[in-house]
Design goal:
The chain is mainly β. The chain contains three helices and 20 strands. 32% of the residues are buried.
Length: 206
């Protein structure tokens, strides 16, 4: 178990209200009240959380070209444990204590059952990763990791106007007026209204 200097806290809390964890012109990530929250610490300070409850991720991963739209929006129901690394300032004031019913409601036998899920999630996130915990901490952005239907992790990295999303069958990178989308249909690069689309057999320049 190597988490690059990160550690899990000892106490599980829950959100006392709905919280928007991330929002930009490209998407939004929200969690509902009564979502379990276990702090992820670096040098004794909370630098993120493992959450479990109800939430939603919406991401506009569509690229507009002269020939029409390419790609599709990402919509994920967040009902499994997921990881957030980044500033916890917006979350910490909105946390309260948990009780047995909070865990029973999510079909967890105890607090330890959730802690075990959180440990497995961090194991998977950092397995073979070259990310250094302190580098993530200093980036000033957010990193989210969500289990998917293929028993792997979808990753969302966001910092200002920069956004990177990798899922089961597609990746999406957006920075200012430049967008790169990789999907089963091919690869499209768009910059300042001009785009190049490369499919398996053809190349289109607009």
């Amino acid at each position: 178990m190597k988490w690059h200097d990160y550690q899990l806290a000892d106490t599980v809390s829950k959100t006392t209200e709905n919280i928007t964890l991330w929002k930009s012109e490209k998407g939004i990530l929200e969690i509902e009240a009564n979502t379990l929250a276990l702090p992820v610490e670096l040098d004794g300070e909370a630098k993120g959380f493992v959450f479990r409850g109800k939430g939603k991720l919406l991401l506009d991963a569509i690229v507009e070209t002269d020939k029409g739209a390419v790609g599709k929006s990402v919509e994920k129901e967040l009902n499994k444990s997921f990881l957030m690394l980044g500033s916890p300032v917006e979350v910490q004031p909105r946390l309260g204590p948990t009780n047995r019913k909070d865990f029973e409601r999510l079909e967890l036998e105890s607090q330890q059952a959730f802690v075990s899920e959180a440990e497995s999630l961090l194991d998977e996130f950092f397995d073979g990763s070259t990310h250094n915990g302190r580098c993530i901490d200093k980036s000033g952005g957010f990193v989210f990791a969500f289990p998917n239907e293929s028993d792997r992790l979808d990753i969302l990295v966001a910092k200002g106007s920069k956004l990177v999303y990798t899922g089961v069958d597609r990746s999406f990178v957006s920075h200012g007026n430049k967008v790169v989308l990789t999907s089963p249909e091919g690869v499209i690069v768009s910059h300042n209204g001009k785009s190049i689309f490369v499919s398996k057999c053809h190349r289109h320049i607009h």
